[in-house]
Write a structure and sequence with these properties.
Number of domains: 2
Radius of gyration: 30 Å
Shape: elongated
Low-confidence stretches: 234-241, 297-308
Structural class: alpha/beta
Largest sheet: 4 strands, mixed
Number of helices: 10
Number of strands: 8
Mean pLDDT: 86
Distance between the termini: 84 Å
Helix content: 40-55%
């Protein structure tokens, strides 16, 4: 007895694979389902029926089969074709980006949707599971009252919340992409200035003190002749970017061959300075300067001596 027909325009093979896997699972539970195919114009219909072994179809089996069909379709939407949905969304809403840029933005969209962050695999799994369950429950609601589902039409008209979620993530991803693009251009220009500058000092120590201020010392431990910088806050609340620029400008001005950063772990300025000055930069893990200026941040590492 046929209970469900799924009509697909594209992705028929993936849908078929998902459904066959569920049919196998059902068979292992003693529920035997057959799947046949028929064509109607551009559509392929995958028709599922429960095998009647002469004993009638037990109560509840149809609901079990519907659940497994909905589960297969939810997996197909979220895991198989979501990236194509994202690509189509970006082509429609942001056609002025080239293919390479849209591909990069697509990665950002997935980051936003899956809430990817370093070391937060659990959060990513939860985001994907929540999105899949939203799609699954919408499919179950539909199949509760209909035995024929046109996949592409269902996605367009019944999954509006899901589609809006992707569009919102796309908008956020574009903002992130533009910020990174501007930042990378800023870094590129700064690296150019560094490359054309002749080094004026052999070595400089940059100390980010616990009170948010910084100090510049030469290889002999003497203050660098930059009085207008001394005592300026490195990251004072909302104005941290301006003062980060000020620090980098000072480093470009003195153009040291080597830069040793003290107390910069976890600071945004660390990444920027490292990207601009590349292999000139070393992060100190503990020395007499750290002991003198950073004692409130961490205990000094006894017996460790870094570059003076």
């Amino acid at each position: 007895m046929e209970i469900i027909a799924i009509g697909v325009l594209d992705h028929g093979s993936k849908v078929r694979e998902r459904l066959l896997a569920k049919i196998q699972t059902l068979g292992e539970k003693g529920i035997y389902v057959d799947m046949t195919e028929r064509s109607a114009g551009p559509l392929t219909f995958l028709c599922l029926s429960i095998s009647d072994l002469g004993q009638g179809i037990p109560a509840g089996q149809r609901d079990i089969v519907r659940y497994h069909v909905a589960s297969a379709l939810a997996d197909n939407i979220v895991f198989d074709i979501e990236t194509e949905i994202i690509e189509k969304t970006l082509r429609t809403r942001y056609s002025y980006f080239d293919d390479g840029e849209r591909e990069k933005i697509g990665e950002y969209v997935l980051d936003v949707l899956n809430r990817r962050s370093q070391g937060d695999d659990q959060g990513q799994v939860q985001a994907i599971t929540r999105r899949r369950n939203d799609v699954l429950f919408t499919l179950l609601d539909y199949l509760d009252t209909s035995d024929c589902l046109m996949l592409e039409g269902f996605m367009r008209f019944r999954l509006k919340r899901y589609m809006e979620q992707i569009e919102t993530a796309a908008d956020s991803a574009v903002d992130d992409f533009m910020l990174e693009k501007e930042y990378n251009e800023f870094i590129r220009l700064l690296k150019y200035f560094v490359d054309v500058q002749e080094p004026k000092i052999e070595e400089i120590h940059v100390i980010a003190k616990p009170d948010g201020r910084f100090r510049l010392l030469d290889q002999n431990g003497k203050a660098v002749d930059s009085d207008y910088l001394e005592g300026m806050p490195l990251e004072p609340g909302q104005s941290d970017v301006d003062h980060e620029d000020l620090l980098i400008s000072a480093l470009i001005t003195v153009s040291p061959k080597k830069i040793i950063l003290h107390g910069f772990q976890g600071k945004n300025a660390n990444e920027t300075i490292t990207r601009v000055f590349d292999n000139r930069v070393t992060n100190c893990s503990g020395c007499h300067l750290c002991e003198k200026y950073l004692s409130r941040l961490h205990a000094p590492i006894r017996g460790h001596s870094d570059e003076n």
